[in-house]
Amino acid sequence: MKLPASLIRTPEVTKREKWLGYLLGPAGALLLNAVLATYLNVYYTDVLNLTPLWNGLFLTVFPIVSKVIDAVTNVVMGQVIDRTHTKEGKARPWLLLSAVLVPVTGILLFTVPNGSDAVKAIWVMVSYNLFYSFAYTIFNMSHNLMVPLSTRDGTARGGLSVFNQITTIMMSGILVALVFPMVIMPMIGVDQSKWITLMSILSILALPLTLMEYFFTKERVTEENAQAEQEARLSFGEQLRLLFTDKYMALMYAYFFVYTIGTTLKNLGLVYYCNYVLGTYNDGTTQMLVSVIGGIPMGIGIFAVWPLARKFGKRNVTMAGFILYAIGSLICWMFPASLVVVLAGQFIKNIGGLPCAYVFMALFADCLDHLEWRKGLRVDGTAMSIYNIIAVAMVGIMTGVFNWMLAKAGYIAPFTARSVAEAGQVLAQNGWAAQVTLDSLKPAADGVLTVALAQPHSVNWVISFAFVGLEVFTGIALAIILFFLNVEKDLPREQAEIKARHEGKEQA
Fold it and tell me: Per the confidence metrics, is the pTM higher than 0.90?
């Protein structure tokens, strides 16, 4: 089957490619994923009330098992990409398929039928794996390879990496950090029908935007690579040996492993931290302030990070940044209930996180070029599958760990009531205490009250450690790992030798 041709035909990266292919195109799927990363677990615990299911084991075990499946599909997808040979590249064709699969499976995540606990559990497990282990794996693998396969020009590739991250950090960040806590969450509360409507809209939005990413990207590195047949003959085990016997690739994976543990637990803890430790449940301002004030440096970073990385090196700037990252996290952890201190700590922390956020994929691409220089071939699909396995496995494991910690600490989910009197009866029957006085609660448009409970001290400690405590330690560990990741030192010479090899083969 003949695939639609890319609308980008120039050998150099163009402005249209940057803005449409790397900034706007991925916005739909990345926005959906950003919302899910922050709120899907909240949907499971607060809307579907699955925390007590099977004595807390369901929300502990199911994410871990699901991510094992996800890891397997990432391996398969990496092999499929490395064995895909079309005029449109090896990764881009899969964006077309994901453009349809991501919206459909995104909707299924939330259309959980009202039935027995067993019915809900089965639907959650199936829909979760259809989205993450199948649809989003296809999108994420092909999308993440766009920067490494776009060009060998280091400056152009760094620029694409920055544009690629603007979408994730700024566009999705604005909606998740501002619109959701201030407007959307107070409106939808724990009403499942409202959640379904909202997430269906976000899911459908991914379709036209993912198609835009397909049409406005180009795999120049794939086009110049003459070793495709040799790569296809390598077994998965041989490809793994190539990757993990290279010092820089092994360090890159160790770096990403540690970083993902910290950021995953932080993302899971964000809503709970703002709802119970720092503010009150869906108060509309606390989460917005934490996300926006702490995230202001991300906007500054668009203009500052790449010039600094070009002058001092991507590794050096990122390493220094993680020292600040750890300091900012420590400030927050020392005073977790002080809004002013936490906002200051988040600001410092996010200044430190700027280089990692914007130049990581460019540094990953440098490691792939170094590997090609050493071994004479590329294994981009397998390299990205290992990257994604780390990402998805840690999401599953840390989600399970976080939910287990909440259950063991005694987390109590909010409940709904039709009146203050009914809410008072529920509190009295269970011996619970409301987070705020019942007469101060604002009912939803249909008159339903959402009553949040005052959590035990043990729950608040778990939430605080997840959001601000763990990253004190991961920040220090990341700076140490980066000290040894000096791949940029000889990269210009290595890239020149790679180019000379290709030119010699073309002449031969």
Answer: no
